[in-house]
Design brief:
About 50% of the residues lie in helices and about 20% in strands. With about 800 residues, the protein is of the alpha+beta class.
Length: about 800
């Protein structure tokens, strides 16, 4: 038997070595060689496919960008802000008397043209600048008047005149719209005279005429005429990039539309499109490596004139060198200067005559190996961008050297990898075969002794692997066989003792259960009493319906008592409505709601403070005083939406502490956010100030104020929050429905959202009311005349 066990172990050792060598090297060698052949064929195909993907992504992005631009211009052209601004600017622009022009005006404007504007036209020679001055210097008294006040003398206008009042009223809102949409400039143009009656950026084209002025034949003058003569009315027109003198001869593109009011053409809206946005789309904000374009890949646009419509990667990556004063950068600056305009852009300057561009402009899409504008051999993917306004080529390309560098050296790296792995496998096979075979022989001998009844045997543990673990288990098994009987007896004695202890614990648990039931009954009774107190403190909904018949209150506490509460009152001609969300819910929240309700009674009903922002401020001071927050560092407080309806002036004032106001007017939803500070809690600022917002009630308007319980409720099939976005969409969908129906829809929606699997997480409160001025207000006041009178004064 000794001979048989030893012989068996030796055979296992030899077999393990052979198996490891075969399994570790042969399949790996075959697989790596086959993979090499596949990789060689696929790298080139992947490069083509990747460039095609980049090309299509960029094409979709640039088409989406221009579609978005048209939507934004269309929105602005039809907005009330632009139509009102156009009407008012037209009215007051032409009411400038020629007698107001004096030497100070001509001196100031001349100084701006000579000493500021012309000095920045670096590509013009001195003689050209002198001629240019006489070509564009304004001689019209209107142009002189407005360019003096808003360009050369900007910011120090001393005299008051009607146009200034209109400008001061509309300019901030228009500027914010330009910043929001990302335009470089916005023009309002009189369709009858061609005068630019308003320009946000106030360049030298401001207040000039596009029908008989110095910029009549400029790209702005052309887009004006295209829009004016467009038979499609308010459709959006685009004019491709051209150098534009008022923008210091930089490449500029425009988009415009007609401004229609009451069915009549009152003006033309033109916006200046930013080239940076196009560069951002094509260059991916400079993240070429992350986009898989390597060190040489790029995407760019080319116009029908074979000139670039976006900056090249070479220009973008070397902008720092363009402006550097380092002597080492001189050669690079010379190379860059041959590719860019004085504005350091290759748009309208770099000519691209590659075969890819010609094919794309011919309407074709494909891949070609060609030479690019830098003289480098590239793999180029091309496609046309053709719309009614655009006829461009989109090119995505990468240098061939970089593409095929990925394959070079792969063969030798794979052979080296096979050799290294073979050596490692052989060494590991020798060690593992010895370590596996030796313990097996030891276990075979030990098993023979165990079979004879010798339980005192203990084998040497030579490793920490599975075989070592098996050896340990063998030793433990030998010991456990001897101890099994004694262990069973000890367990029986322990079980008997545990039985007695369990019976004693059962009696104790029964006593404690009875005590808990009594305590729960007492606490439940206290909470029910607190609920009756809180309900008695809340105002009756019937009283709100007397004040505002079209109203509802959707109030759904999480527990018996609530941290959310509603409050309203009528003082004189004003109605005050509040939706309040206190810290916490249940009993702690209910205590806070009693504090908040009492403070509102004191501030509004007793002290007669009716300004919403002052009410919030007094509420904040009251909570801090009641809870002694400055001494105790207590941070409890409340979020609040507060509305004050003035039935005489037909307006509503709103102030919010974190909580918003949502209202819908003319089918358009408006969302006014509350201030970021709550009422009460930690105060770092010297004085807590809340903002006020006014809403005109001359049109039927539906309002909603609410706590965060509805939007933060988890539910649905994906167990996520309902979210404020979905709540606003729900408001917009149901706002035409009767008020009572809205209440039922909101309740049914949140119950369906929670279903049977989700518990209510917070108190829910929504107050909705609709103001119809013809039914709600006793008399009508001409608010337009009232506002206009105040504006003129």
């Amino acid at each position: 038997m000794k001979f048989s066990i030893s012989y068996m172990t030796k055979r296992i050792r030899h077999k393990l070595i052979l198996y490891f060598l075969l399994i570790g090297t042969v399949p790996l060698s075959i697989a790596l060689w086959m993979e090499y052949k596949v990789v060689v064929n696929s790298v080139e195909e992947d490069a083509y496919n990747h460039l095609k993907s980049v090309r299509e992504i960029k094409k979709t992005a640039i088409e989406d960008y221009f579609f978005q631009l048209k939507e934004e211009v269309n929105f602005l052209g039809k907005s009330r802000m632009i139509t009102d601004a156009m009407a008012n600017f037209n009215m007051h622009f032409h009411n400038i008397n020629e007698n107001v022009i004096n030497k100070e005006f001509t001196k100031g404007v001349r100084h701006y043209y000579n000493d500021i504007y012309l000095t920045q036209l670096s590509e013009f020679k001195k003689e050209e600048k002198e001629k240019l001055f006489y070509d564009i210097y304004p001689t019209n008294h209107k142009t002189l008047f407005f360019q003096y006040n808003y360009i050369s003398n900007w910011g120090v206008i001393k005299e008051q005149f009607p146009y200034k009042s209109v400008h001061d009223y509309f300019h901030p809102d228009i500027s914010r719209s330009i910043e929001y949409f990302g335009f470089d400039d916005l023009y309002l143009i009189d369709p009858h005279t061609g005068y630019i009656v308003y320009s946000a950026a106030k360049k030298v084209d401001y207040a000039t005429s596009l029908t008989k002025g110095p910029f009549e034949k400029s790209s702005l003058g052309k887009i004006f005429k295209i829009v004016l003569n467009n038979p499609a009315g308010q459709s959006i027109q685009y004019y491709d990039f051209e150098q534009y003198l008022p923008s210091f001869n930089a490449p500029v593109a425009f988009m415009g539309t007609q401004i229609i009011k009451d069915g009549k053409l009152i003006g033309v809206l033109v916006v200046q499109i930013p080239i940076d946005k196009i560069n951002g789309v094509m260059a991916g904000d400079g993240n070429w490596q992350q986009a898989g374009m390597g060190d040489s890949g790029e995407s760019y646009l080319v116009g029908s004139d074979m000139k670039m419509r976006s900056d090249s990667r070479f220009i973008i990556e070397n902008r720092a060198a363009i402006f550097s004063e380092d002597a080492d950068e001189v050669d690079l600056q010379k190379q860059v200067s041959s590719m860019t305009s004085p504005q350091h852009t290759s748009v309208l300057y770099q000519q691209v005559n590659s075969e890819a561009v010609k094919e794309a402009l011919a309407g074709n899409t494909g891949v070609i190996s060609t030479t690019n504008y830098l003289g480098k051999k590239v793999l180029s993917c091309y496609t046309p961008i053709q719309t009614e306004d655009l006829h461009w080529a989109l090119i995505s390309e990468m240098e061939e050297g970089e593409v095929f560098d990925l394959v070079s050296g792969l063969k030798y790296r794979l052979l080296g990898l096979i050799l290294i792995i073979s050596i490692i496998v052989t060494a590991c096979a020798l060690v593992i075969a010895y370590r596996i075979a030796s313990p097996i022989l030891q276990l075979a001998k030990g098993s023979k002794k165990l079979a004879t009844g010798d339980f005192n045997i203990q084998l040497e543990v030579k490793s920490d692997d599975e075989i070592g673990y098996l050896t340990k288990m063998f030793n433990m098994m030998a010991i456990s066989l001897e101890e099994k009987k004694n262990d069973i007896l000890r367990k029986n004695a322990a079980l008997e003792q545990q039985k007695e202890e369990i019976e004693a614990q059962r009696d104790d648990i029964e006593i404690r259960t009875n005590q808990l039931a009594k305590a729960y009954k007492d606490i439940r009774g206290s909470i029910n009493y607190a609920q009756r107190i809180q309900k008695a403190k809340l105002p009756q909904f019937e009283n709100l319906q007397k004040l505002i018949p079209d109203s509802f209150i959707f109030f759904k506490p999480r527990d018996l008592v609530s941290g959310d509460f509603y409050w309203f009152s009528e003082i004189g001609n004003k109605i005050i409505i509040a939706a309040v969300d206190c810290t916490g819910h249940g009993v702690p929240g209910a205590f806070m709601s009693l504090i908040g309700s009492g403070l509102l009674d004191e501030i509004v009903n007793q002290k007669k403070i009716l300004k919403p922002e002052l009410i919030l401020k007094k509420m904040h001071e009251g909570v801090q005083q009641v809870l002694r927050q400055r001494e105790t560092e207590n941070r409890d407080g409340m979020d609040m939406s507060l509305c004050v309806i003035d039935r005489n002036l037909h307006k509503m004032e709103f102030a919010g502490a974190k909580n918003p106001l949502v209202y819908i007017q003319n089918g358009e939803l408006h969302h006014i956010k509350g201030d970021k500070h709550p009422i009460g809690g930690l105060q770092k600022e010297d004085e807590r100030v809340f903002g006020k917002h006014e809403i005109d009630l001359e049109q039927e308007t539906t309002f909603y104020i609410f706590s965060d319980g509805y939007q933060d409720q988890f539910g649905g099939s994906h167990n996520r929050k309902f979210m404020i976005k979905n709540l606003k969409e729900l408001f917009l969908k149901i706002h035409h429905s009767p008020i009572k129906t809205q209440h039922l829809i909101l309740e049914e929606k949140i119950n369906s959202w929670m279903g049977d699997d989700h518990k209510q997480l917070d108190d829910i409160l929504i107050i909705g009311f609709r103001i119809d001025p013809e039914k709600f207000f006793p008399t009508k006041i001409n608010l337009k005349d009232y506002v206009k009178s105040n504006l003129m004064h």
